[in-house]
Amino acid sequence: xxxxxxxxxxxxxxxxxxxxxxxxxxxxxxxxxxxxxxxxxxxxxxxxxxxxxxxxxxxxxxxxxxxxxxxxxxxxxxxxxxxxxxxxxxxxxxxxxxxxxxxxxxxxxxxxxxxxxxxxxxxxxxxxxxxxxxxxxxxxxxxxxxxxxxxxxxxxxxxxxxxxxxxxxxxxxxxxxxxxxxxxxxxxxxxxxxxxxxxxxxxxxxxxxxxxxxxxxxxxxxxxxxxxxxxxxxxxxxxxxxxxxx
Length: 246
Ligand SMILES: [Zn+2]
Known about the structure:
Layout: E1 7-8, E2 15-20, H1 31-39, E3 43-50, H2 61-78, E4 84-89, H3 98-111, E5 115-119, H4 133-150, E6 171-175, E7 182-185, H5 190-198, H6 201-207, H7 214-229, E8 234-241
Parallel strand pairs: 1-7, 2-3, 2-5, 3-4, 5-6
Antiparallel strand pairs: 6-8, 7-8
Helix pairs in contact: 1-5, 2-5, 3-4, 5-7
The chain binds zinc ion.
């Protein structure tokens, strides 16, 4: 059976905020899409819930944190993103809950995005390949915190000075999801996406995957996505509308 064709993601927006669990999450699924959008003049910021400090087996967290934050900032710069925040939750044991929603709502209220991007938070990547616990916790908290951000009476203590409720998020888009229905053409920005992943050099080295090739790895997924959008390369997203009646 032929898979359903993807619908093209809308591009009539100005500001997006990407909120993910770890440095490198964006680069394994969405950096080339970000490069396309920043190239159109859109503003995009990154928010990392953890600093990925438990991600390198041979490097203790206190040393690893600074390495991974620096790699993430360099990686973001490659695709035109110059604001990268780290929320400091502990890598590997991020819990879904009110503290996480509170921290994310504050970032959403501060940045006032039209679109929020996150990673796959379904139980699997498709089939029986299990997703990772931090990704699931963060994605669920993102969709909830986007709603919290618009409600004056939730996390009301944040609303001092310039911070105000923000109900302007039109949708949350999750990359890497087995439930993807939409995609964006990344043919022209694919190379920037590869460079962005390569910026995580210490992390990739630490994975110990023999002969890992960033281009080859990303190309397989981009080509599959492209087939369903009718272009050479595409990045798929699952779309969660955040307004009512849409
Ligand atoms: Zn991750």
